[in-house]
What does this fold into?
Amino acid sequence: MTIVLAGCGRVGFDRDGEHDASTVTGDGTIADAPPPQPLCTNWSAFGAPVSLSAMNTNALEWAPIGSSDGLTLVFSRGNTASSMNVWMATRMSTTAAFGNPVELTALSTAGSDDDGYLSSDRLEIFFDRGQPGTSTIYVSKRMTPSDVFGTPTAVTMTGFSGDNWAPALADGDRTLYFNTRQTGPVQIAWATRPTRADPFVYQGILNQLSPGNEVGFPAPSADGHELFFQMFGSPIQVWVARRANTSDPFGAGSHVTETSSSNGDGDPGLSADGTALYFASTRGGNMDLWSATRTCP
It folds into this structure.
């Protein structure tokens, strides 16, 4: 699907990544792919965050991410961190409010099923099952966007061992970013596949995002020029790394100060058009969903 955004600083972009991603290099680079143009070359700062009050309850809510068409919001909800489930809310247009969310019970177990992420065609949903240290990314599929999801299966990742969670897709669903803990702090890793029919092949850790610090919960932009993520600490914060071209590695991350409060703000997700940043925050006293928007002048 090709989306064209009009206005100064906005150019057309290929949402589904129709290019050859078979050759990859280190640090999140795809070598042979023609570089997608950025969604915007001059983003404004994000505005003041607002609560997604229709999604928030007395339970925990986190891991918000919008679908490629902007009409679906996927997030996690649970009474404890060890009993999260994936929920989904929809709306009729991108200017409407999201309706009442429903649990995706096909993904749910007695344990934790968390961090859902829809594929660009909305026919697959990736999520993690278990707790950090033993967690694994799973995928569930369906025939059409109106069908229920089928029985989940573990994602195959050649050359990788260890726990993996918080999946995020990019490059037409051929690049997978995720959390892992190998020999120290939590870090963001990545894997690629030539086509969606192939298994993922592990590529490595994105060490350059914040060397020596614990980072996770990746949220790539649709154009591949930005990677939002969570910086662990007290409190947690939303950070972003950028690159001028998708053939370049991401640079070092920087703090997205517009989302910050004296409480924890993390677990980001970016809308497909790049204008809305969803995140989880305890600024209201509970871990709830919030959003902040920006414009392309």
